């Protein structure tokens, strides 16, 4: 069975993944996740993937802000897309090149795990345009920002998807589409 490429990401109700300054802390508001239901969406994803792909900005947010002392994706093979690569560190590979080619090459390799696309329009847009994302798993939090960094940039070509599921977990709505 071929590896799946999964965009698993959270956005605001009006479609932003970060505010205008690139900050994402508003996405982790305890009142969204607190409630009678345990949110297991991330846990389910983490059991099926073994590879993570992100942009350099997302990587920097993680290692410099969100989790500076404990890299949360250490158990996965990591690829960080960047125009200024650093030397590889353990299972973190800094790649200067086309993300669509990297994903195509990774999909062609035999592996039991799927590929998780974390975020950033410089990573997402080329993959949408190359029709390489198999599953769009998007969490929607009940915030309207009015402006910020959109999940899908204006560089994305129109794409029709099929709705697979909709799930409410406390105050977050998860939608899953496939190509």
TrEMBL record:
EC number per UniProt: 1.5.1.3
Domain Bacterial bifunctional deaminase-reductase C-terminal: 3-170
InterPro entries noted in UniProt: DHFR-like_dom_sf (IPR024072), RibDG_C (IPR002734), Riboflavin_Biosynth_HTPR (IPR050765)
Keywords from the named record: Oxidoreductase
A GO biological-process term: riboflavin biosynthetic process
Source organism, top-level taxon: Bacteria
Keyword Protein transport: no
UniProt-recorded Gene Ontology molecular function terms: 5-amino-6-(5-phosphoribosylamino)uracil reductase activity; dihydrofolate reductase activity
UniProt-recorded name of the protein: Dihydrofolate reductase
Record organism: Companilactobacillus kimchii
């Amino acid at each position: 069975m071929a590896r799946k490429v999964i965009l698993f990401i959270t956005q605001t109700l009006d479609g932003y993944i970060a505010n205008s300054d690139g900050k994402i802390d508003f996405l982790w508001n305890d009142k969204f996740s607190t409630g009678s239901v345990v949110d297991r969406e991330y846990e389910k994803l983490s059991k099926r993937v073994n590879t993570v792909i992100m942009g350099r900005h997302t990587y920097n947010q993680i290692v410099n802000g969100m989790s500076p002392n404990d890299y949360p994706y250490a158990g996965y093979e990591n690829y960080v897309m960047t125009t200024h690569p650093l030397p590889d560190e353990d299972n973190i590979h800094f790649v200067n090149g086309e993300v669509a080619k990297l994903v195509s090459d990774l999909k062609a390799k035999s592996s039991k795990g799927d590929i998780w696309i974390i975020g950033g329009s410089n990573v997402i847009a080329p993959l949408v345009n190359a029709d390489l994302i198999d599953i769009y798993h998007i969490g929607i939090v009940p915030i309207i920002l009015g402006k910020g960094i959109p999940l899908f940039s204006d560089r994305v070509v129109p794409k029709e998807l099929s709705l697979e599921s909709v799930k409410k977990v406390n105050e977050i709505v998860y939608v899953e589409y496939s190509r």
